[in-house]
Automatic annotation (TrEMBL):
It comes from the Eukaryota. InterPro entries: FAD/NAD-bd_sf (IPR036188). It comes from Rubus argutus. Coiled coil: none annotated. Transmembrane segments: none annotated. This is FAD/NAD(P)-binding oxidoreductase family protein. It holds the Pfam family NAD_binding_8. Residues 23-60 are annotated as: Disordered.
Length: 482
């Protein structure tokens, strides 16, 4: 995930939206004046100035209170007949939101920073000319919620997603592998995760995509939201969706006029995970084994590694006799201990972490120290805002006074399914709100004050049906027909 946090600016003061104004904009909207705002602040939406619960997650109490002290923006203009939504973030949640808004007849524009494609943490790296292929964030997923099952069924039919038939299981330190049962089915992108995201909007006609675009400022003006990227106007919208999280989102919301939304975002805590992509000339070995027993494994008892998968087998199966492309993902504890700015990883850290992770692979496989073959290609990446570790446990957040919502995995859990369900839920909620004409906004306020709970699961997310019963709140598993 790209995060330009080092270049975020302080947001400009917001504007007053006292009453409906009718101003006709030319193609270049007039930039909002830079004076101090005076809002007709809605008392029911006054910022919370105390927090009865002891802070348990996320930003400091002082920092949350500062966020909550922002003036609340209140739109009073009527909702137009043909409203349009600006979605900031083109990961699974933002894309699902756009798709479901279209289903409800609502136009949207998805903004995403992705240079190589959409998808966010559904990342696939292809290295030419061989090519080498690696899923470098989301690895696979299970399905537990009927609405997600329907969506995935459609993607299976379109040839974007298929069942992963390869063996996966748990690898105990020393090379002891225990396969997981083949049910529930696990799903992967046919050509990797990112191509799913890049193909999703191909048959839509009410969704515009702007990429790579980094929205750096949100400003309410005359009943609409103005979005811009480093001073360059990026359009005006009747409602906005924040479909990303972490430092970027906190800065964007820092003085946006959405104190309750910003406050909820600040409570979110995220783990850090290192991804080491490595291509080997020869197949990896385990002591005493003639055939390698798995394509993917949750690693147990090794400090630096929580997951390893053979992308070549997973994505190309028997077609490939070529290089063996592996993704190794660190534990969250190792990620935290070795955290550095993800945009600028010092060489010493890169060397230390690469060595540490390759040693962890040896340890997991039970290979003698120093016996793992040297990869002929490797690439190290830090997911500084990898997975949420706490959640408000609500599908979406919506502030009807500010006409702004949040969707993302963290609202429900830590996986692609949660992200998709969240995006769909917010789309339907916004469409219902638009349909109501916006006359009774308070009826549409959702998730603005929910408390957070810790998320259980693997260091790379939740896999309903694959986890011990105690680790998931998910609905019963569901089989798809492929
Ligand atoms: C290492 C790792 C392994 C994982 N493994 C699995 C797995 O095996 N199975 C599973 O189900 N889940 C897994 N996950 C979790 C899964 O990837 C996420 O739950 C899911 O992709 C989140 O989707 P999202 O849309 O909420 O957010 P994201 O995918 O993060 O999307 C947010 C998007 O917004 C963009 N953005 C941010 N700021 C701006 C801005 N200012 N302007 C414009 N765009 C912006 C970002 O670039 C990004 O593209 C893993 C995650 C990681 C990091």
């Amino acid at each position: 995930m790209l995060c330009y946090s080092h270049s975020c600016h302080l947001l400009q003061p917001l504007l007053k939206t006292h009453k409906p104004l009718t101003i006709t904009f030319s193609s270049q909207p007039k930039p909002p004046p830079r004076k101090r705002p005076t809002f007709d602040g809605d008392q029911s939406q006054r910022p919370i100035t105390r927090n009865r619960h002891k802070r348990s997650y996320g930003a400091s109490r002082r920092s949350i209170l500062k966020t909550l002290k922002q003036e609340q923006v209140t739109f009073t203009t009527p909702v137009p007949d043909d409203p349009t939504v600006g979605i900031i973030g083109g990961g699974m949640a933002g894309l699902a939101c756009a798709l479901y808004l279209e289903k409800r007849g609502v136009r949207s524009t998805v903004f995403d920073t992705g240079v190589h494609g959409l998808g966010g943490r559904m990342g696939t790296r292809i290295v030419d000319p061989l090519p080498l292929v690696f899923d470098h964030a989301a690895q696979f997923f299970t399905v537990s919620v009927p609405r997600f099952a329907e969506l995935i069924q459609g993607w299976v039919e379109q040839g974007l997603v298929r069942e992963w038939q390869g063996t996966i299981g748990e690898l105990e330190v020393g090379g002891h592998f225990v396969p997981l049962p083949s049910s529930p089915p696990r799903y992967i992108g046919v050509n990797g995760m990112r191509p799913i995201a890049d193909s999703l909007l191909s048959q839509t006609h009410m969704i515009n995509v702007e990429r790579p675009t980094w929205i750096s400022k949100l400003e309410p003006f005359n009943g609409t939201w103005y979005l811009s990227e480093n001073g360059k106007p990026r359009g005006q919208f009747d409602a906005i969706v924040i479909a990303h999280n972490g430092k970027c989102a906190n800065r964007l919301l820092g003085s946006s006029g959405l104190p309750l939304i910003a406050g909820q975002m600040k409570r979110l805590e995220l783990s850090s995970v290192w991804a080491l992509l490595a291509a080997f000339e020869d197949p990896l070995q385990i002591p005493g084994g003639d055939t390698f027993p798995f394509e993917g494994a949750f690693v147990k008892g090794v400090d630096s590694i929580s997951w390893m998968a053979n992308n070549t087998k997973k994505l190309l199966g028997s077609q490939s006799g070529g290089p063996h492309c592996w993704t190794f993902l660190s534990t969250a504890a190792y990620g935290k201990r070795n955290k550095v700015p993800q945009e600028n990883i010092p060489t010493a850290t890169k060397e230390k972490v690469t060595t540490g992770m390759l040693m962890g692979v040896e340890e997991a496989l039970g290979l003698p120290k120093g016996s793992l073959q040297t990869p002929f290609y490797s690439r190290l990446q830090l997911w500084g805002a990898a997975l949420p570790t706490n959640t408000p446990g609500i599908p979406c957040i919506f502030d009807p006074h500010g006409r702004a919502g949040i969707c993302g995995d963290w609202l429900l859990g830590s996986n692609l399914e949660s992200a998709a369900i969240s995006g769909m839920a917010l789309a339907n909620h916004i469409a219902d709100y638009f349909q109501s004409g916006g006359d009774h906004p308070e009826e549409f306020a959702v998730g603005l004050r929910n408390g957070f709970e810790p998320i259980k699961g693997h260091d790379i997310g939740q896999f309903p049906g694959l986890e011990p019963q105690s680790q998931t709140h998910a609905a019963p598993e569901m089989q798809l027909t492929t």
